[in-house]
Amino acid sequence: MSYSFWQTKRGSQKKYDVCIVGGGISGCSTAYWLKKEDPSLKIAVIEKGDLASGATGRNAGFVTSGSVEHFNRLVHLHGAQKAYEIWNYSEENLKLIKSEFSQDLNTIGFRQNGTFSLASDQQEMEELEETASLMRSFNIPVEELYSEQIKARLQAINFVGGIKYLTDAEVNPVQLTELILTKANIDFYPFSEVDSFEESSSGVQIKTQKNMFESELLVLATNAYLPLLSNYFDDKVFATKGQILVTEPTEMCMEAPCYAHFVLDYFRQLPTGHLLIGGFRQLEKETQVGYSDHTSEKIQLALADFIQNHLPKFSHLSIINRWAGIMGFSKDGQIFVGSLPGNSRVFFLGGFTAHGIGLAFHAGKSLVDVIYGRPVPDFISAKRF
Ligand SMILES: Cc1cc2nc3c(=O)[nH]c(=O)nc-3n(C[C@H](O)[C@H](O)[C@H](O)COP(=O)(O)OP(=O)(O)OC[C@H]3O[C@@H](n4cnc5c(N)ncnc54)[C@H](O)[C@@H]3O)c2cc1C
Predict the structure, then answer these.
(1) What is the pLDDT of residues 225-260, one digit of tens each?
(2) Where are the alpha helices (DSSP H) in 119-204?
(3) Which homologous superfamily is 13-113+168-235+331-385 in?
(4) Which one of 30, 323, 352 would you pick to mutate in the ligand 1 pocket, going by the greatest count of ligand atoms within 8 A of its CB?
(5) pTM: predicted TM-score of the whole model, two decimal places
(6) d(CA 249, CA 272)
(7) CATH code, 115-166+237-330
(8) d(CA 99, CA 101)
């Protein structure tokens, strides 16, 4: 993009200790932990749209432990000890949200009733049973369920069985992000797309159409959009679309949020009684890659069919909202924090792989560890790539 002389003179040069690009949960969390580390820091979050206008404002609000795979697959991939550490890292995310915002949890739709993973066939049920047994060996609390219990507690049918992760939670992701930003108490620049950044002798220069920022350090917190700011991320994060629909509200009758079909599909009844359903990106693998956030008819139909096939109690409700959002999937399904090679002033975090609400608050804290030269677990370090 190019700008005229007149356009670039509208704003001014702004000086900060740290500029963070991206006003989603990862950018705001990084700002929060930086400010906590050193209250004297002058910090700006620069955002292309409004607060939480990316995936953070478009997700399902599950605050779940683990990653994109069932725990048994995590164990097969990484070995039991590392799988447990990965699990613990996300558990710690939830603990941090609860401890830092203990007085505010009732203002952000926070509920900690656990989450379910439901199996629609015997193969997945066997994986869930293996998952439950492995989790018990690490003293992670988990409950196994049969189809009658699923019907009674979730109003969901046509599932062979499932397990319940007892410590998981749910939240309004926009309210959580607003809270983090408010508590961080830093400068927020909405509707300011960063076009480019460049190192100078004194720091990093960051250009938006309206303003030029001069900063000691720069943090890139744009997750799926990281490759648009630096080609370093081209082979590290992949933009992947996720879709959701929401029905009109009805009486509360679902115990807690649920995943189905190997964590690909999910549903929950919001505290307001609305039913939210998302997933089915597996139906259109090619078109679900990239930055278009249009919904597709095929996936929206599959989401509506899911209600008919699995949630008949909700089948009479009108659909009142449909949307899509762009997730950033990493190469190995785990997040990464680090700094650009040969460039100690530019830091980043990303690769949340559909789990940023369950990971990003902790990841922001880990990025602050990287910035201050402290070690981070190797499974989140960008040095592993
Ligand atoms: C449909 C869907 C359902 C999901 N469900 C869940 C769930 O239930 N639980 C869960 O844990 N996770 C879920 N996720 C994933 C979760 O939303 C993300 O992992 C998380 O929001 C990532 O946060 P972020 O701040 O890193 O990225 P984003 O929220 O995408 O924020 C990046 C921000 O950077 C801004 N930006 C980009 N480029 C620029 C630029 N050049 N200049 C300035 N700003 C820029 C964008 O506008 C955006 O606001 C879901 C995602 C989707 C799409």
Answers:
(1) 999 999 999 999 999 999 999 999 999 999 999 999
(2) 122-137, 147-154, 173-184
(3) FAD/NAD(P)-binding domain (3.50.50.60)
(4) 352
(5) 0.96
(6) 7
(7) 3.30.9.10
(8) 6
